């Protein structure tokens, strides 16, 4: 008899403790996550509040091999706009004075006047930062770098003619800090010319170096 | 020499903007003097367990530090989808915009960076773009700027350079554009314009002289929203060139390019 009453008593204790623990756990659960989530509107930060530095302006010096007209020094300016971490757009304008053809050097004939020798180009390119990375200089300096590919179109004014020009190339950019960058690039300019008889492609290779500033 | 001056001028402008940045570190954006809001310093608190600080503004650059939940970060500037931040010890690094969107302000409210999105495509009045294509079998490069007067009607100013084998032409025109379905992502339009063409024949064609003529154009095209503030634009225009010769000239032009709205 004793054991039976004990059993009933124990059962009751078990039932009470179980329900109590269920209750308590219910309370702690409610503390962790409220049944009604507060509906907080996020604070909108206007984009004008953050200084964005997606533009890059700079100047460059290069040598260009003007087909049939020796190599010349180019002075130019460059404006770039970074669309994303990978893609950017750049516009270049460059000025050079073309040299003489072999025929002019040998035979005292002049094919072009001085003003016709002025070589001016502009182009708008799409660039792709294909290999971003870091470079290390003198043990204690680390620079962020980008190796990029370029392709675009524009125009070349030369020999009293203005021709549609395509250009493509690649460049290497070293970010000296968050504002200044140093570039070296190689690119090919291709346009049609008929100055020396038949129309042909003039392929001009340009090697350039320059600095730029993000703003 | 003048060309050299242009290059130096470009550099000088850039240096100038940099100098401004040093004097007023909280206000280095170039449009800041249009808005007094730019004077505020933006400090945010990390709400996620941690946030990665990278050495540069791209996923290709290494993570050199991790800021933990509760730390505060001061926002300095932004490049594309990366934000330059400074922590309480003065360390600076780059955090992705996606991570900044998960931070809180000092009062504990979630924050959201306001970015141009598709809804802004037909609410921002200005647009500008660069296009290239073909003008009567010659290459054409163009630039334009447009202003939306209503959801459907816009006024555009175009400048184009046509680079042909026999001549080089420059075109200026003013167009009115009608967008039929302004809320569509792929939005067709019709356009009507008037302007001038300046034709410069090549030196080898000595019997031709430089001339400028009036033009009228009619065209159609589409604007296609890409992302952020960018959209593609394609258009075909039929130009009527009014000459003082026996017949007027006609040219078909098509162009494709990228535009931005702002």
Please sum up the structure shown.
Chain A has 215 residues and is α+β, with helices and mostly antiparallel strands. Chain A is 17% helix and 56% strand. Chain A is built from 2 helices and 10 strands; from the N terminus they run H-E-E-E-E-E-H-E-E-E-E-E.
Describe the model.
The complex is a heterodimer of chains A (215) and B (262). Chain A is 17% helix and 56% strand. By secondary structure, chain A is α+β, with helices and mostly antiparallel strands. The longest helix of chain A has 31 residues, at 2-32. Chain A is rod-shaped. The mean pLDDT of chain A is 86. By secondary structure, chain B is mainly β. Chain B folds into 2 domains: 2-14 and 120-261, Porin (Beta Barrel); 26-113, SH3 Domains (SH3 type barrels), CATH 2.30.30. In chain B, the strands form 3 sheets. An 8-stranded antiparallel barrel of chain B has the order 9-10-11-12-13-14-15-16. In chain B, strands 6-5-4-1-7 form a 5-stranded antiparallel β-sheet. In chain B, a hairpin with a 2-residue loop joins strand 4 and strand 5 (82-87). The longest helix of chain B is centred in the N-terminal third of the chain and has 22 residues, at 2-23. The two termini of chain B are 36 Å apart. Chains A and B meet through strand 1, strand 2, strand 3, strand 4 and strand 5 of A and helix 1, strand 4, strand 5, strand 8 and strand 10 of B. Strand 2 (51-52) of chain A pairs parallel with strand 4 of chain B, so a sheet runs across the interface.
Feature tags:
heterodimer, A: 215 residues, alpha+beta, eight-stranded antiparallel barrel, 2 helices, 56% strand, rod-shaped, B: 262 residues, mainly beta, Porin, SH3 type barrels, 2 domains, five-stranded antiparallel sheet, 16 strands, 54% strand, elongated
Oligomeric organization of the protein chains: heterodimer
Distance between the termini of chain A: 93 Å
Termini separation of chain B comes to: 36 Å
Let me know the number of strands of chain A: 10
Fraction of residues in helix of chain A: 10-25%
Treating each run of at least 4 consecutive H or I residues as one helix, how many helices of chain A? 2
Radius of gyration of chain A (CA) equals: 35 Å
List the helices and strands of chain B in order. Answer: HEEEEEEHEEEEEEEEEE
Overall structural class of chain A, as computed from helix and strand content, comes to alpha+beta
Rg from alpha-carbon coordinates of chain B = 25 Å
Helix content of chain B: under 10%
Q: Provide the β-strand percentage band of chain A.
A: over 45%
Main β sheet profile of chain A: 8 strands, antiparallel, barrel
What is the β-strand count of chain B? 16
What letter string, H or E per element, gives the SSE order of chain A?
HEEEEEHEEEEE
What is the 3D form of chain B? elongated
The figure for the number of domains of chain B is 2
Which range does the strand content of chain B fall in? Answer: over 45%
CATH architecture label of the largest domain in chain B: Beta Barrel
């Amino acid at each position: 008899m004793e054991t039976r009453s004990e059993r009933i008593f124990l059962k009751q204790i078990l039932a009470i403790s179980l329900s109590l623990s269920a209750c308590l756990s219910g309370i702690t659960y409610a503390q962790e996550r409220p049944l009604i989530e507060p509906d907080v509107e996020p604070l909108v930060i206007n984009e004008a509040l953050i200084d964005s530095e997606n533009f890059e302006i700079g100047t460059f010096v290069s040598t260009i091999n003007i087909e049939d007209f020796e190599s010349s020094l180019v002075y130019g300016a460059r404006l770039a706009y970074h669309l994303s971490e990978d893609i950017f757009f750049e516009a270049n304008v460059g000025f050079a004075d073309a040299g003489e053809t072999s025929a002019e050097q040998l035979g005292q004939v002049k094919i072009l006047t001085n003003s016709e020798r002025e070589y001016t180009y502009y182009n708008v390119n799409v660039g792709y930062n294909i290999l971003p990375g870091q470079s290390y200089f003198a043990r204690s300096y680390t620079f962020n770098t980008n190796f990029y590919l370029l392709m675009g179109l524009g125009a070349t004014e030369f020999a009293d003619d203005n021709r549609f020009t395509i250009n493509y190339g690649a460049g290497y950019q070293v970010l000296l800090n968050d504002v200044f960058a140093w570039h070296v690039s190689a690119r090919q300019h291709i346009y049609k010319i008929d100055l020396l008889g038949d129309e042909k492609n003039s392929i001009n290779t340009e090697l350039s170096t320059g600095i730029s500033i993000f703003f | 020499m003048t060309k050299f001056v242009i290059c130096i001028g470009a550099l000088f402008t850039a240096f100038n903007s940099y100098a401004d940045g040093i004097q007023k570190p909280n206000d280095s954006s170039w449009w800041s003097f249009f808005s007094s809001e730019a004077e505020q310093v933006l400090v945010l608190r990390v709400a996620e367990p941690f946030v990665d600080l990278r050495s540069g503004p791209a996923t290709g650059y290494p993570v050199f530090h991790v800021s933990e939940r509760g730390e505060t970060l001061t926002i300095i500037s932004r490049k594309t989808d990366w934000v330059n931040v400074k922590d309480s010890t003065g360390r600076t690094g780059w955090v992705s915009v996606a991570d900044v969107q998960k931070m809180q302000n000092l009062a504990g409210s979630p924050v959201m960076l306001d970015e141009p999105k598709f809804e802004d495509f037909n609410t921002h009045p200005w647009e500008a773009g660069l296009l290239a294509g073909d003008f009567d079998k010659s290459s054409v490069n163009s630039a334009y700027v447009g202003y939306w007067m209503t959801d459907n009607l816009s006024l555009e100013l175009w400048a184009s350079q046509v680079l042909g084998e026999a001549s080089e032409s420059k075109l200026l025109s003013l167009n009115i554009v009608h967008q039929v379905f302004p809320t569509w992502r792929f939005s067709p339009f019709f356009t009507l314009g008037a302007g001038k063409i300046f034709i410069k024949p090549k030196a080898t064609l000595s019997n031709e002289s430089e001339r400028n003529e009036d033009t009228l154009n009619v065209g159609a095209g589409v604007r296609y929203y890409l992302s952020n503030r960018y959209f593609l634009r394609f258009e075909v225009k039929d130009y009527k060139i009014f000459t003082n010769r026996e017949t007027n000239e006609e040219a078909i032009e098509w162009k494709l390019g990228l535009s931005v709205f702002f």
